[in-house]
Predict the structure of Hydrogenase assembly chaperone HypC/HupF.
Amino acid sequence: MCLAIPVQIKEIIDENTAVAEISGLKKTISTALLEDVKVGDYVILHVGYALQKIDPEEAQKTLALFASEASATGEPA
């Protein structure tokens, strides 16, 4: 099973690399597949690569759904 998740860009390192955050966890990711990524953007992340920019409202809905499912199962969000 593959999972792509929305993450928020927190820092731009160079034109192909950024730091993204989800649930307080920060990770260095590749932005080589996208153009014009800025701090504050939400992107879909899969195996370390930002695949697509996503609307912030849609990202929040998806993250809220993940959090809801995690709390229902007792798993950490």
Observations:
- The chain has one domain: 5-73.
- Residues 5-73 form a domain with the SH3 type barrels. fold (CATH 2.30.30.140).
